[in-house]
Structures are given as C-alpha cells and as structure tokens.
Design goal:
Blueprint (H helix, E strand, L loop, with lengths): L1 E5 L7 H14 L2 E6 L5 H13 L5 H19 L4 H24 L4 H25 L4 E4 L6 E2 L10 H13 L4 E5 L2 E4 L4 E3 L5 H11 L4 E6 L20 E2 L1 H9 L10 H7 L3 E5 L8 E3 L12 E14 L9 H11 L6 E4 L5 E7 L3 H11 L1 H5 L5 E14 L9 H11 L4 E6 L5 E7 L3 H13 L7
This protein binds adenosine-5'-diphosphate, aspartic acid and magnesium ion.
Length: 461
C-alpha cells in the first residue's frame, strides 16, 4: 500500500489532473493521495492578501484569476458540474469575504494568512476527488485540518505526531476507497487553521504515509527525481538514483526545492522509503530515499544552494583569546530570532562571521549592537560589517567522509572560474561542505562544480 503526493506542477490544470488520476488508477495501490494547490495559486493567494492588507483593491482581480482557473478545470473535468460548482463557489465566497475583511482592517496576521493560503489546497482537492469519482474510482475528499494537528505557530507549525497519527489511522480505518487529501494545511488543537511551511505538502505526504504504515511514499513532481543540481541552471544534471536520509535532508535544507526538509522525519521513524517520481514521465525509476540506500559511485552526491543571504562579520582585535564573545554573539542572534545558516571563525579569532537570511539582517545587527555595547564602547569590537547579495552553496554526500581531495577539487575549480569565496564551513560529519559566494556567481559556480565532480573529463564518473 502506498501514499502518493502530487505537487502543484502535477495538478496545475485539467489536463494534468487527468494525467495524475490516471497514474493513481493504473498503480492501484494508493490509499491516500495528497495534492497541492495548483501551481502558482499559493503565491497568488499571498499576493492577494498582501494587496488587501495594503488597501489595494487589486486583490479582487487576483481572486478572480484564481477562481477562473478552478472553474475552467472543473468544467473541463466534470460533465455536468451544476451542484458541485455551486458548492465550490460557496467555499470561494468565504475566501472573498476573508480577503475583504483584511482589506477593511488593513491587517493580515500570520493566522489570517494561513487561513487564506489553505484555500488553494482545499479547492483543488475537492475538484480532484470529484473528478476521480467520475472517472470511476471510489474517491473521497479529505480536509487535512481534521486530521493533522499542530501547535499554534502560524506559517510553519510544529506537528503533534502521536495525535495526528491516531486520527489519520482511525479516519481511514472507517472508510473504503481512496482519500484525496489537502497537503500543506493542518490545524491547532483550538481548531485554528495552520500550515506546514512552503512546499509543505511533501511533509503532509510523509505524515500520512507513517500514520497509515504505507510500504512506500511517492512524491510526484515535474522532474525525474532528485537531481545532482538545480536543473534550471545545470541542464546536464543527472538523476540521483539512491539517497541516504541524511543526504536528502542536507540537500533539501540547502534549497533543493524538490523536497521539503522535514519530509524524511516520519519516514526515518518508520523506515518507509520515500520515492521522487515524474508525473510527466512515469516510467522513469525516480530517486529512492531510504536508510539502506545503495552507495553512490560519485565523490559527492549533489549540490544545492540557499539564496538571499547576507554575511554579518563581527570584527575586533579585542576578541582574540577573550572568552564568551561567540556565546554573546549567538545569544544576541537567538534573542533577535535570527537563524544562523552558516558560521565560521578564523583561528586568529579576529572575526566571527555568520551567514543569515537577508530579511533578518536589520534585526540581527540591532540585536548584536545592544548585546555587544560594552565591547564596542571599549573598542574590543571595531566593526559589525554586513555584506548583502550572497548565497550559501553546499556540496553534499556521504562519500566525502574521510576522503581527502574533495575541498581541493572544489576550490581549485571555483578558483579557475574566478568565483570569489567569502567564507567556508564544514560540519564535522563531513557530509556537507558549504561556502558563501556572491549571488551573481550562482550559475557559474554551480556549472563549474557540477562539471568538476560529475563529468568524465572533470569528475570521477
Ligand atoms: P512540486 O510542484 O511538485 O512541489 P517544486 O516546484 O516544489 O515541485 O519542486 C520541483 C522543482 O524543484 C523542479 O522542477 C526543479 O526545477 C527544482 N529543483 C531545484 N533543485 C533541484 C534538484 N536538486 N533536483 C530536482 N529538482 C530541483
Ligand atoms: N501549496 C503550498 C506551497 O506552494 C504547499 C506545496 O505545494 O507543497 O507552498
Ligand atoms: Mg513542492
């Protein structure tokens, strides 16, 4: 038995939905199918909410556009959609009223944003379940808010696994057939709508997979699997056929959008393999992620990157040998709710450099200035320098462990491509070597590294 998940690109319109239902039907082993909103709808909902909050009436046209996509899909999929489209319209009116409320009070809290975003998955899965029924499947619609329980953190809620598993299991035990489940959305114990973070439908799929003790979890998307690098930049990137859980986590954490970083959590506990497969090319084997993954023949497994980051450099001669400065720096960042993506300190101890998201720079700097006021006044810290327009790139792979020469090949290839490196860090697990470069060097760096490690003339394939 399987749990399948189809991302926004796989359910973007009637033609894709038809194709997706065909895949599910032909396979015949799914108990729950988790679907995202149509591609672009979540972004459009966010845009509508932001405009409404800014007092811009244009939000209403964005909603019209969203409605028309769902109406068109319904009409193309369902022969006489009369009553069904009425019910869909009622649900959509609720969204209009909520956005109108945001427009009137000119405020959209994270809680309201979660509610607004939830409509993308709700509308689409209603349509898909209805169509699957017409196509002859024993299908029912599942609003995951009734089953997936979280805390009250909006935008990125923390799942309460035990209770969620119990509810999912009980719900499916009582029903025959195939559930089409809203990905991404959940609710707090007070019944308030929450979401699992952008791209969170992958995570939903693995929660349902674990709860139902599936044999496999399949994430269907628009590429043949997890690739060695972002295919939009490196068209030559090959499919990684097997990934260990650690490697998959690192790749997704470092920005390989194809997977949400938490997707592997339930699968780790239950040892269910996670597959990445292509809706547009169902015959391709895809990527298998599992604890017992076959060893990869290459020196590195993949390359990924996090964009829109800045480097904050705390510089001061007075830090040399002084105890506790690093602690104060990280305490200040934690208090300011800033996440350090990468940290490096030269052994001269003359500076500590932290890479953070650019959106958090202002908060970080004011927090640091407050915390280090004394050190700044007595000049043991001379400067807090910020460099914007950067990205963190990482090469990832279990084979790097204990193998000399990886860093050498990496940095000499970047050197010959004249890519400047601003900071470097390697975790002691040796699974990941990350470095900070300018965002304008993104494509050049990615292609250069891919060539150096994955092609027969540059690499060890
Ligand atoms: P979905 O709509 O199925 O959730 P996403 O757009 O979230 O799909 O993720 C799939 C996309 O991720 C691919 O189309 C690809 O452009 C991008 N991507 C970035 N890095 C990688 C990678 N290393 N492997 C595969 N895809 C990647
Ligand atoms: N629709 C949500 C998003 O765009 C969740 C997902 O697609 O996984 O982030
Ligand atoms: Mg996705």
């Amino acid at each position: 038995m399987k749990v399948m998940k189809f991302g926004g690109s796989s359910v973007r319109d009637a033609a894709h939905i038809r194709r997706m239902v065909e895949i599910v039907e032909r396979d015949g082993n799914a108990r729950a199918v988790i679907c995202s909103a149509m591609k672009g709808v979540t972004n459009a909902l966010i845009e509508a909410a932001n405009r409404a909050e800014a007092g811009d009436r244009g939000y209403s046209e964005i909603l019209d556009g969203i409605w028309s996509r769902h109406q068109t899909a319904t009409e193309e999929l369902i022969a006489s959609p009369g009553d069904f489209i009425g019910a869909l319209q009622d649900e959509f009116s609720e969204l209009r009223e909520i956005c109108h409320g945001v427009f009137l009070i000119k405020e959209c809290s994270p809680r309201s944003m979660d509610l607004i975003m939830s409509f993308g998955e709700r509308l689409n899965n209603r349509i898909i379940a209805e169509y699957a029924g017409f196509a002859g499947l024993e299908a029912f619609y599942v609003d995951a808010r009734e089953l997936v329980l979280t805390d009250g953190t909006h935008g990125n809620a923390v799942v309460r696994f035990e209770e969620s598993y119990r509810r999912i299991d009980g719900y499916f035990a009582d029903r025959a057939g195939l559930g089409f489940v809203t990905g991404f959305i959940a609710s707090s114990s007070e019944g308030i709508t929450t979401t699992l973070g952008r791209n969170g439908s992958d995570y939903s799929a693995s929660i349902f997979g674990a709860a139902l003790a599936a044999d496999d979890i399949e994430i269907w998307t628009d590429v043949d699997g997890v690739l060695e690098a972002d295919p939009r930049v490196v068209p030559a990137a090959g499919v990684i056929s097997e990934l260990s859980i650690d490697e998959a986590m690192e790749l997704s954490y470092f920005g390989a959008e194809v997977l949400h970083p938490y997707t592997m959590i339930p699968a780790i506990e239950t040892a269910i393999p996670v597959w990445i497969k292509n809706t547009l090319n169902p015959e391709a084997r895809g990527t298998r992620i599992a604890a017992d993954a076959r060893a990869n023949p290459n020196l590195i497994t993949g390359i990924a990157s996090i964009t829109d980051v800045s480097l904050v450099n705390v510089i001061g001669g007075g830090m040399v040998g002084a105890r506790g400065t690093a602690m104060k720096i990280f305490a200040a960042l934690a208090r300011a709710d800033v996440n350090a993506i990468m940290i490096s300190q030269a052994s001269s101890e003359h500076s500590v450099c932290v890479v953070i998201r650019s959106a958090e720079v202002r908060r970080a700097v004011s927090g640091l200035k407050a915390e280090l006021e004394w050190e700044i006044r007595n000049r043991s810290i001379q400067d807090i320098e910020v460099v914007d327009g950067l990205e963190v790139m990482a090469i990832i792979g279990g084979n790097m462990r204990g193998r000399p020469g990886v860093a050498g090949r990496l940095f000499s290839s970047l050197g010959s491509a004249e890519v400047n490196i601003l900071a470097i860090a390697q975790g002691s697990s040796e699974m990941n070597l990350s470095f900070c470069i300018r965002e304008i060097d993104h494509a050049r760096a990615l292609s250069t590294i891919h060539h150096a490690f994955f092609t027969s003339d540059g690499g060890d394939r």
